[in-house]
Amino acid sequence: MKNEGIEGMERFESPGKGRGLRALRHFAVGELVFACPAYSSVLTVNERGAHCEHCFTRREDLFKCGKCKQAYYCNVDCQRGDWPMHKLECVSMCALGENWCPSETVRLVARIIMKQRVTTERTQSERLLLLTEFEAHLDKTDGEKDEMNQSGIAALHHFYSRHISDLPDDQALTELFAQVNCNGFTIEDEELSHLGSAVFPDVALMNHSCSPNVIVTYKGTVAEVRAVQEINPGEEIFNSYIDLLYPTEDRKERLLESYFFVCQCTECTTKSKDKAKMATRKQSSPPKPEEIQSMLHYAKNVIEEFRRAKHYKTPSELLEMCELSLEKMGTVFGDTNVYMLHMMYQAMGVCLYMQDWDGAMSYGEKIVQPYSVYYPAYSLNVASMYLKLGRLYLGLEKKTQGVKALKKALAIMEVAHGKDHHYVAEVKNEIVEQK
Hints:
Distance between the termini: 50 Å
Shape: globular
Largest sheet: 3 strands, antiparallel
Helix content: 40-55%
Order of helices and strands: EEEEEEHHHHEEHEEEEHHHHHHHHHH
Radius of gyration: 23 Å
Number of helices: 15
Strand order of the largest sheet: 3-11-10
Strand content: 5-15%
């Protein structure tokens, strides 16, 4: 296809930010700014059997690939549509069996390579930005990132070299892995559960702000960008690259580490929510600055420790880890402190996994109000928390509370996902069923 652009949008050079996306007309809150199909996507292994490998539709009557018995599809059309990409994995999975275990990034890179080989023209995903134009930032990567890229290249050769002839050389692969790591997206469902990974070139064109005026949601493997603030002609379109729960210095650190820039947005310069986010425990004499700093250091360490522990500890051990860290942090931090909320969220997740519904509900109730204050309007994090709570309440036969929570989730989702989204329809049905 020719470079037809996106109606109502233009690519431009944003002062101090490089290229960006700018509105040419007015967009109201909740309006679809643009949609972008995935250039390439890959369903996460854990969701096989629950979602279609090709279109990511969630349904119960999927049928599996007759060869590998691993990939599931809605119908023959989806299977045929996915075959040019799935055949790479199908042959490899049949040959290696349980030893087939490439990372999601490796799987995505393999699909991108194959897509590039059969694509001669600009795709519908690249109306304003070509995938080959992605920034790689190789001059800024550290030893750890270099090691990750090299590990990815080794895995690509191990799992795919017999099925992809003439893989690009290591220099080209290093650049591609770096491009995907810096510009890739994770596709999530209405409760923010991970479904897969994809690249959406035109979506990647948007610059970051900690006070974004758009939000990205997914309809299958299509990214939809909707306005969450009024956008006027000439204004830049800003998405958020990161979780916005944390204080300014944390956000800046994460952005610099992952995306190689220092954020100068209004939220980062005013630090308007930092004091509330770092709430301390109410007591006769407030904690000293060094006590707060020491506990902050502990909190960051325990968050990283928990992230690693999820790979080898049992759910009971993980829950105990959450409880002990909350007890310790609670000697200095208030319940609405974002580091307390982080560990409560982890504890809630473990409780849900263990089917401890009362425990999950208890944590959710403590989280949802501070979330509503700390996150921007129409946040998916807030919507998903109300959604989880609503479903928990209904499961525990707390009908009134359940419906109330679902309605709060719905109010956000109708703006963020759009009123015609199937997730919105599902939540509406859940509410109607309670009448």
